[in-house]
Each structure stands twice: as C-alpha cells, then as structure tokens.
User: Which sequence fits this backbone?
C-alpha cells in the first residue's frame, strides 16, 4: 500500500503521489506492492473499520465543510495546492494567512489547524485554537486540540469540563474517542473507580471491546492492579499487537509468572528482528522482574489512545487523513513515546514528506528506539520513491547498528543493485548469506542467493551467477522470477537454449500474464530460430508492456524475421522514441542501424565482428562541418534578392 496522505479539507483534489519506481526485467521480483491511490473520500463519508476497537460506520473526519472565501483568494488557493501536494508546512503558512484575512471561516480554521499539526507545529496550532475559542468560535477540531493541550499540562478538571461542555458529534467518532479521553482524564484526576466503570461499560459496546479492554488493562496496571490487567489481556484482541504483548509480558512478570510470560514468545517468528522484544525475553529468562512501563500515568495513557486511533486509520486499503493528526497529537502529549513518533514517520513517508519523516527517524535512532522492521519498510519506501542515496544511507546505518540482521544486508544489496552498483552488492549479499545459512531453515537464504546471482550476472561473473540461480531454484523450484532470470540469461548469451526454453516455459505456466516472462519466452523462440512461434507471446508482451523500449525492440526483430518488415520498422521507431537513459538493456545505436540498413545487414556485421556491432555501423554519415568562409558565402547568397 502506498496511499497519498492528503488532508480531509482538500478532499475534492487528491492527486496521486508517484511512489513506485519501474522494475527492470532483470531485477528481483519477490513481493510487489501495488501503489494505486484510491479515490479520496468526500467530507462526511462514513468510514467502516474492520478492526475491532472502533465503531463500524463512524465518520472520523471533523473538518468543517468548505465555504466560499470572500478575500485573500491567492492564499486560499495556494493553501489548497500545497495541501494537495502534502506540503504541510506550506499549507500551514497559506491557511494561516487566509485565516488572518477571514478569521471567522471554520473551514480555513480547520485547514490551518490540520496543516500546522501535520507539519509538527502543534504549539502554533494550539495557539490558534485558543484564539478561536477566545473570539467565541470553535470547531470540533479546535476543541480536540485544546483538550489535548490541557491534558499535556495534566489539568484534568479542565479536560473533564471541556468534555462536558462540548462533546463530539456522534457522527464524528465522538462517543469512542470522547469516552477514552474521559476515562484517562478521570484516572489523572484520581478517580480510578469511575474510569474503570466507564471503560467496562464501553467494552460492552459493539465494535469497541478490544480497544476499551486494552485501555482498561493499561489503566489497571498503571495503578498496580496487575491481576485485573492480566485477566483483561488474556483477550487475544487486546494483546496480540506489539504493545499488547509487551504489556501482557510485563504484567505477568510483575505477578512473578515469568514462565507464562516466556511462553508467549514461543509461537513468534523472527523475534530477533525486534531487538526490544528479544531483550525483554532475555530479561525474563534471566529471572528479572520486569517493571510495567507501557503506561505510567494518565497523560501517557491518553497518548496510547491517540496512537491506537492513528494506527487503526492507517490500516486497510486507505489511510484516513486524520491518522497523521492523531499521531502528531500523541507525540505532543508524550514526546518520549516511540510508537507515536514511528507512526508519524511512517505516515509522512507515505505522504512523500521525506524530510519531515527523517526528523522523527533520526530522533528514534538518537533515543535508541529504532525498530529494524520499520527501518526496512522505510528503506523500501525511499527506494521506491527513487531517493536512492537516502535509502543507501539508511541501509548502511541499519547494518552498522544491527550487523547480525540478515535482512539489513539484503536491503543494502537491493539498493546497490537499484543504483547499478552490482559488483559492490556481491559482498553485501555474501554477508547476508553467511548469517542466513547459519540458521536452521535453509529456505531463509533463497532470495539472497537469487539477488546475488543477479549482481554476479550483471557484473559479468556468469558462472557464479548460474550457481546462485540454480541453488535458489533447488530451494524454490516454482519461483517464476528465478526461472525467468536464469532462462533469459542463457538466452541472452545464446547458450543452453533448450534448457533455457524449458525454464521460461515453466515460468509462463506460473505467471501467464507477466510481460517480462512473455518477452523472455518469445526471445528464446527467436534465438532458436522459431520465429513464427515467437510472434504470439511477443505481441502479448507488448500489449502488457507497451511503454517498454526493449520489448518493442524485440517485437521489431521478430516481425522482421517473419517478413513483416514495415511493422518491424514501426516497432523500432517506437522503441527509439520510448528509450530512456536508464534503459540499460536497450541498444539504441543498434536500433538506429536497423532502421537505416535493416536487421539482416546488422546481423551480418555482428557475425563478422565477433558478435558485436562495429561502432558506427549502419548509421547515416554525419554532415561535414562547413568552414567559416563557406558559412559566410552561404549567408551572402541567402541575402541576395
């Protein structure tokens, strides 16, 4: 999923952010994330969350409906454009200017608040919300912001008074959020019994049980009722996520039940990828009584509520525009909460705001709170956005901090491959394979073998590449990308063509609509001289990958060999027009030579030159440069009547 995090206040705009770089034929094709951005919802549209812990059908958008702007139209339009591009800082500036021109417009007020919070300028957003309130105005969004600010100051009586005076509209997610807000305010005010009663009541509401029970468990544990918390955390809905597992383990340890806590780690795969969990497990195994520190006070508890809301809105097929707002407000309440900072960073990355996201990632690293799994996702996002220098820096930092994390080395190798630094990638994959092949599961190494094979092949080490591909195939005999790569590599070198054809035919069986694999099949037929057989799969490949220069070039060659020479020239012209500098497999001079002298002459020249086209062959001669005197004479002739 790669959704564009566009503000709710510009729901009518919503252009997609390009996030996925095009995949090369000979790059690894393990897991593909389709990044299509869904149409953005209109204001007031109901959001149905499948995860337990939110009310189904509640509309969680609180931004006021837009009204015509009677002045400063330039600032308003600039704000809309900046918001549509997820440029939160610029949107905050322009919306703030528009509010100065028309201080009573609620749409502009909400736009400024959302933009300021999204950009991390929460103090300024709070100041604006207070000014709006002092002037006798206010929206649900400004009221939420003021409540969060009073909670940050731990002024719990003020928070409770605000909840009583301005409850959220039932259609805006108010009952659930307000109820959890009130429960933690009651905890902060020293009214734990009232808070417990409220959370128990909420836990009986449809769709709210998981979230209410988790918050109740945290509340009980924060005041030392570990028995009550342990019972609540037995509910899988309340404890199967990372924070729930951590809370349950800590609660059990406080009850001196480390053996039960350790048993919770047994079904988990790859726990070493989460060093914090691994460290927690090791402390339990050593017999330590681990303190409960998931939530130690009401302010931290409320931050957890906002993180949970933000995480729920991030999930599924769409990311709700308020997810970032909740994450930012959680950070404001509890600046040391790593989950809030991490959620903000991930949402900013999805929105294409990489510089803002980097601030949060750097803060996580500085605090020793970096999670490798999240870093891997960040590296992948940077690479897909073609920010390869930043992706490489992040991957190198990850391997330095976690040198035994094999996936860190694989991610670094993948970035180096994407930067066409194949020779450098080989020793990086060597390191990954040293770690992976020491593990009990041999399947863990197949992708690193495949990726190293690609790097070796592109570096000219064909024997090493073949060995890696074949080793990967022994582990994963039905991986179409490996079958295709090895088969095409042999076809491209004009060796072992019958074996190559069998590999590619199997890949086609597994992925019959993959354009790259269809191209490989057609090219194998071409190399075997089966030109008629090559036409149909190559035409299918062109249909699937009409903008690929190499596929169109291959189509031209096949058409030529079956006598369809005019169509061949059309395909070569198209390949030439589609060519981009990054199309390293497409031989542009060869295409130009074919257009000038035909494929037969090109093949003859290559055969006479050891298999390569002589430099400059078949290209039209460059016009002879004219001397200065000739240029002058020509100019005089043109000037003559």
Assistant:
């Amino acid at each position: 999923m790669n959704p564009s995090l566009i503000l709710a206040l510009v729901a009518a705009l919503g252009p997609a952010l390009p996030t996925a770089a095009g995949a090369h034929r000979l790059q690894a094709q393990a897991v593909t994330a389709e990044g299509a951005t869904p149409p953005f919802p209109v204001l007031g549209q109901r959001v149905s969350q499948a995860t337990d812990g939110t009310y189904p059908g509640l509309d969680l958008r609180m931004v006021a409906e837009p009204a015509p702007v009677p002045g400063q139209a330039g600032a308003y339009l600039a704000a809309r454009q900046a918001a549509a591009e997820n440029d939160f800082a610029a949107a905050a500036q322009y919306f703030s200017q528009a509010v100065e021109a028309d201080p009573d417009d609620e749409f502009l007020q909400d736009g400024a608040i959302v933009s300021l919070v999204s950009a991390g300028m929460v103090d300024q957003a709070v100041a604006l919300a207070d000014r709006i309130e002092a002037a006798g105005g206010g929206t649900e969004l400004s009221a939420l912001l003021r409540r969060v600010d009073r909670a940050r100051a731990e002024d719990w009586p003020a928070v409770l008074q605000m909840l009583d005076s301005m409850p959220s509209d039932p259609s805006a997610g108010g009952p659930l959020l307000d109820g959890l807000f009130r429960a933690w305010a009651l905890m902060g005010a020293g009214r734990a019994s009232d808070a417990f009663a409220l959370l128990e009541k909420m836990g009986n509401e449809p769709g709210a049980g998981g979230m209410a029970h988790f918050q109740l468990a945290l509340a009980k544990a924060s005041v030392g009722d570990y028995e009550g918390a342990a019972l609540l955390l037995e509910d899988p809905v309340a404890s199967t996520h990372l924070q729930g597992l951590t809370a349950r383990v800590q609660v059990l340890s406080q009850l001196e039940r480390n053996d039960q806590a350790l048993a919770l780690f047994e079904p988990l795969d790859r726990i070493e990828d989460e060093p914090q969990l691994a460290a927690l497990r090791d402390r339990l195994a050593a017999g330590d009584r681990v303190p409960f520190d998931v939530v130690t006070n009401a302010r931290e508890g409320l931050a957890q509520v906002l993180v949970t809301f933000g995480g729920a809105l991030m999930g599924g097929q769409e990311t709700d525009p308020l997810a970032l707002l909740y994450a930012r407000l959680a950070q404001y309440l509890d600046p040391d909460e790593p989950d809030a900072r991490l959620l903000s960073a991930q949402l900013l990355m999805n929105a294409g705001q990489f510089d803002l996201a980097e601030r949060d990632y750097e803060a996580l690293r500085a605090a020793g709170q970096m999670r490798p799994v999240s870093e891997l996702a960040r590296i992948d996002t940077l690479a897909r956005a073609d920010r390869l220098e930043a992706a490489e820096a992040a991957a190198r930092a990850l391997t330095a901090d976690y040198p035994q994390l094999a996936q860190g080395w694989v991610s670094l190798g993948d970035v180096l491959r994407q930067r066409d630094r194949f020779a450098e990638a080989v020793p990086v994959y060597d390191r990954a394979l040293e770690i992976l092949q020491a593990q009990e599961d041999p399947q863990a190494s197949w992708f690193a073998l495949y990726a190293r094979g690609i790097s070796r092949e592109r570096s000219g080490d064909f024997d090493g590449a073949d060995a890696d591909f074949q080793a990967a195939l022994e582990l994963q005999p039905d991986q179409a990308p490996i079958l295709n790569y090895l088969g095409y590599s042999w076809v491209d070198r004009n060796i072992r063509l019958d074996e190559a054809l069998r590999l590619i035919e199997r890949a086609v069986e597994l992925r019959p609509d993959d354009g790259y694999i269809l191209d490989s099949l057609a090219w194998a037929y071409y190399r075997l001289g089966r030109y008629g057989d090559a036409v149909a799969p190559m035409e299918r490949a062109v249909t699937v990958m009409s903008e690929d220069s190499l596929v169109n070039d291959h189509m031209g060659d096949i058409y030529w060999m079956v006598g369809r020479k005019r169509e061949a020239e059309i395909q070569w012209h198209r390949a030439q027009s589609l060519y981009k500098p990054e199309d390293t497999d497409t031989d542009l001079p060869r295409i130009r030579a074919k257009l000038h002298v035909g494929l037969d002459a090109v093949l003859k020249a290559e055969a006479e030159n050891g298999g390569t086209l002589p430099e400059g062959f078949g290209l039209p001669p460059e016009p002879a440069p004219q001397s200065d005197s000739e240029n002058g004479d020509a100019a005089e002739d043109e000037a003559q009547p």
Q: What stands out?
A: Confidence is low (pLDDT under 50) at residues 1-70. The first helix runs from residue 73 to 84.
